[in-house]
Each structure stands twice: as structure tokens, then as C-alpha cells.
Design brief:
Blueprint (H helix, E strand, L loop, with lengths): L2 E5 L3 E2 L5 E8 L8 E6 L6 E6 L5 E3 L7 E6 L4 E6 L8 E7 L10 E5 L2
Parallel strand pairs: 2-10
Antiparallel strand pairs: 1-3, 3-8, 4-5, 4-9, 5-6, 7-8, 9-10
Length: 114
């Protein structure tokens, strides 16, 4: 059973940066495509980025050039580095193991506010 624990969310000013982490257990992590999503109040969950076991990445247009996904296969961790944050990036952020689309962690809150 996959377990996902997100951390790193915080209150940050516009233009600031945050680094989110997701600790993963219960799966063969290094072979698993991982992704980050977010959900803002009143909106559907939104795909942000994914990374293959070998490090190939893909991004949503809304975050391309500002967010970077990476992974540490030795630590079973996936990272989302977020730069140039905007008000509209405020949301709860989740990681997901793509073969397990129904498994989600508790998420981590990111609030962008001045």
C-alpha cells in the first residue's frame, strides 16, 4: 500500500520560493512515475508536474519555468521547488504515484500572500 507524506508548505510572499517534499513508502519508488498536484478552494485538483524513475519531467503550462520537480531515489522522496510564487499558487499541494491514482496523502498548504 502506497503511503505519501507531503511537507514544506508555508505562508510566503509573492515572488518568494518554497521547497515541498513528499516521502513515499510501500512501493518500488525508483521505478515509479511520481507527480505533484494542487487543489485551490472551490477548484478541481490540478496536475502540476511529473517525473519518471529515470528523471524525465513534464510540466503544466501554469508552472513551467517556475516550478522544478526532482527525486531522490535513495531517500524515496520527490521534491517540488517553487520559485516566483504568485497569489494564484495558493492551494493544498499533493504528491501522487501515477500507478496508484486513488492514493493521496494529506497534502501541504501553500499560501501566497502579502
Amino acid at each position: 500500500q502506497v503511503q505519501l507524506v507531503e511537507s514544506g508548505g508555508d505562508l510566503v510572499q509573492p515572488g518568494g520560493s518554497l521547497r515541498l517534499s513528499c516521502a513515499v513508502s510501500g512501493i518500488r519508488f525508483s521505478f515509479t512515475v511520481m507527480a505533484w498536484y494542487r487543489q485551490a478552494p472551490g477548484k478541481q485538483r490540478e496536475f502540476l508536474a511529473l517525473i519518471s524513475g529515470g528523471g524525465t519531467t513534464a510540466y503544466a503550462d501554469s508552472v513551467k519555468g517556475r516550478f522544478t520537480i526532482s527525486r531522490d531515489n535513495a531517500k524515496n522522496t520527490v521534491i517540488l521547488q517553487m520559485n516566483s510564487l504568485k497569489f494564484e499558487d495558493t492551494a493544498v499541494y499533493y504528491c501522487n504515484a501515477r500507478p496508484y491514482p486513488s492514493s493521496w496523502g494529506q497534502g501541504t498548504q501553500v499560501t501566497v500572500s502579502s
